[in-house]
Write a structure and sequence with these properties.
Radius of gyration: 23 Å
Largest sheet: 5 strands, mixed
Oligomer: single chain
Helix content: 10-25%
Number of strands: 28
Shape: globular
């Protein structure tokens, strides 16, 4: 339907009344899921929203970022669930939306979720690629780690490969984060080379450039103690231990240095981010209870706070804008789906899947929605829908 002359006059007068700087400041406060509609209001608004600097500022200034849970089923099928939609009063069921994975091959390649950071998800795709992907804008790029394969794969002996480097099994530590000082996303990997030495490599994703930081590795690090997957928080990657978590290992991306901070003496805890804070969750301390320990102030030992959720296998995913805990319960523990609890452990809502619980062979990662395209100094790739 065409706009009437009166509507056009009102629109023109609105754009003339407010300077572009103020309109931009207002648009930065609009929730991301409404920006697609708002950008159709006028050419000026579309130009402002399409600016790459707007996308970064919108993410940085967002008071309540939109959270999405990305599921990977059978290593080849991706689905997403809008976690914020679970909070709506009329939402008693949730539908998982199918997504097309980037750089999919035929026959299907095996994909693995490695982490998320500031709107982007890091994937691993067989045989030797990492993929940076923004599920919201569907932009993506590949990162090769072939140099690592060469450095860690043993020589051929009697016509047989003694050891072929496999990222998922041979990476001793890995993590995905953001270096604000460089305005760039970073992947870090520690591994053992065929020279029997330990190596630590860092990749800046804007240029796809790998650098060696072997000298940064602590000399007395017991590799078997640490879980390989790290989480990004406060400018650093964090790793927890397999058994009792006495310490948390930290790699500061700006300073390029390792350190540790005291953890909690908890048995087999899982590390997670809740509301931008480091947290542990663990099962079995009390029957049918999941304990969640949150470090409310970064590196402040006295700020650890414990919450008890009355479910035996509750996986916390994120916090709502009101500070309530959104998580999943596995179907073998009773009713599956998503649960929302307040910090007192009171159930606020239970939302089930509309079309049945997904397969048990599923992994998930929570990411915030953002408008940014993948960082690149070389080329950008945006796939067409359906390709």
């Amino acid at each position: 339907m065409k706009q009437s002359s009166m509507e056009k006059k009102k629109l023109k007068s609105f754009n003339d009344l407010l300077p572009p700087e103020l309109i931009r400041a207002i648009l930065l406060r609009v929730p991301i899921k409404h920006l697609a509609c708002v950008r159709c209001v006028s050419k000026l608004w579309n130009t402002l929203i399409s600016d790459p600097n707007f996308a970064k500022s919108h993410l940085d200034l967002s008071l309540s970022p939109s959270h999405t849970c990305l599921f990977l089923q059978d290593n080849s099928h991706a689905y997403s669930v809008d976690l914020d939609a679970l909070l709506q009063d009329d939402n008693d069921g949730v539908d998982a939306i199918a997504l097309s994975l980037p750089f999919m091959k035929k026959p299907s390649s095996d994909f693995h979720l490695l982490g998320s950071c500031r709107g982007f998800v890091l994937l691993h795709r067989e045989p030797q690629f990492l993929i940076l992907w923004n599920p919201f804008t569907d932009s993506s790029k590949r990162i090769s780690y072939s140099h690592m394969v060469y450095a860690a794969t043993r020589d051929i002996v009697y016509n047989r490969l003694v050891k072929v480097f496999c990222f998922l099994h041979d990476a001793l530590l890995y993590g995905f984060g953001y270096d604000a000082s460089q305005d760039d996303y970073v992947v870090v990997v520690a591994y053992k080379g065929k020279d029997d030495e330990f190596h630590f490599d860092l990749c800046y994703l804007r240029s796809n450039s790998w650098i060696s930081l072997d000298a940064a590795l602590p000399k007395s690090l017991y590799w078997d103690d640490w879980k390989p997957k790290g989480l990004f928080c406060n400018g650093a990657i964090h790793w927890s231990t397999h058994e009792y978590c006495v310490d948390i290992l930290i790699f500061d991306l700006k300073e390029r240095s390792f350190s540790t901070i005291p953890g909690q003496h908890l048995f087999k805890p899982r590390l997670v981010l809740l509301g931008g804070c480091l947290a542990f969750y663990l099962y079995g301390v009390k029957e049918n209870i999941t304990e969640i320990w949150v470090m409310k102030e970064y590196k402040v030992q006295s700020s650890w706070t414990v919450y008890e959720i009355p479910l035996g296998s509750f996986k916390p995913l994120c916090l709502s804008a009101n500070g309530d805990i959104i998580g999943r319960c596995y179907p073998w523990e009773g009713e599956g789906g998503f649960y929302i609890y307040n910090v007192r452990g009171e159930l606020l809502k239970h939302v089930q899947y509309l079309y049945g619980e997904p397969s048990n062979h599923i992994r998930s990662v929570v990411h915030v929605d953002c408008l940014m395209a993948v960082p690149s100094n070389i080329k950008k790739k945006k796939r067409k829908k359906g390709m």
